[in-house]
Amino acid sequence: MSRIHLIAPSGYCIAQEAAQRGVQRLTEAGHHVSNQAVISRRFQRFAGDDAARLYDINQLATLTNSDIVLAVRGGYGVTRLLENIDYSAIAARQRRNPLVICGHSDFSAVQLQLLATENVITFCGPMLAGNFGAPEMSAFTWHHFWQAVTSPEFTLEWRTRAPDCQAQGTIWGGNLAMLCSLLGTPWMPDIEGGILVVEDINEHPYRIERMLLQLHQAGILNRQRALVLGSFSASKPNDYDNGYDLDAMIETLRQRLAIPVIPGLDFGHEQRTVTLPLGAMGSLICDANQVSLTVKGHPVVNNSGNNHSHR
């Protein structure tokens, strides 16, 4: 059994029924879910006012009786909080007794800040409402979440069209728009020789290209060992594009970058998503369009007695 503590640092959870379904699904699988009051908390479009949402994050420094911290949902909100997050206190706690801190989307900004300032590893993965509370839980997502948070080392495998290559380095990234929003701030990780993994939702291929070129022109991409592309949900081109699509965008990137660009990882806003520890060590091998990414060096929960079967 894992002890899961909820936080809601971003947008108000309009899908209240889904969030409750997520709580029920986790509870029925044998896990304890605390701090459920944040699910219904609301101020304007946010999951509570700035002070309440900031408290959610800073409270992690002293949180007891919990193994896993799970964000309720994304949406906009954490950018307002970044100056006041006590990341040194959270980092001190993580060194003593690490929590598994998991979320994605808007929460990526907090995760990147913690990585940039204190080298704190957090998990980019499913959230309560959108994933655990889906009408039908993805067995793939469930398996990969528990694998990531309980296994000191694990390997992801997928097939895609990509050049043969090998790369080792720090896994980092998350939501592409949030990553770009941190350029020029103190909270942009300064990672040399990393494996950068990005995803996004509701961004046209040209906007994805523009953000990736921004990272390239800022000198970040060619300092990495590889760029891995996750899912880009709802990014369909239109008639005006005349053949320009995600594949065309990827080819343009490959012509400009000195590093391998590897698409096709199930990672992002889809129901089917892996969980990645940001800041862990990764070993990437692409051979004959078969990719493996071995991950290690991240905090895990004690899996003795945990019920991780899919419900």
UniProtKB/TrEMBL annotation:
SUPFAM superfamilies (alphabetical): Class I glutamine amidotransferase-like, LD-carboxypeptidase A C-terminal domain-like
LD-carboxypeptidase C-terminal domain sequence ranges: 168-283
Any Pfam family the entry gives: Peptidase_S66
LD-carboxypeptidase N-terminal domain boundaries: 4-125
Alphabetized InterPro entries for the sequence: Carboxypeptidase_A_C_sf (IPR027461), Class_I_gatase-like (IPR029062), LdcA_N (IPR027478), Peptidase_S66_N (IPR040449), Peptidase_S66C (IPR040921), S66_fam (IPR003507)
Keywords from the named record: Carboxypeptidase, Hydrolase, Protease, Serine protease
Single GO term (MF): muramoyltetrapeptide carboxypeptidase activity
Record flagged with keyword Protease: yes
Enzyme class, first EC level, given as a word: hydrolase
Family as reported in the entry's similarity comment: Belongs to the peptidase S66 family.
NCBIfam families (alphabetical): PRK11253.1 (NF008424)
UniProt protein name: Muramoyltetrapeptide carboxypeptidase
Organismal lineage: Bacteria, Pseudomonadati, Pseudomonadota, Gammaproteobacteria, Enterobacterales
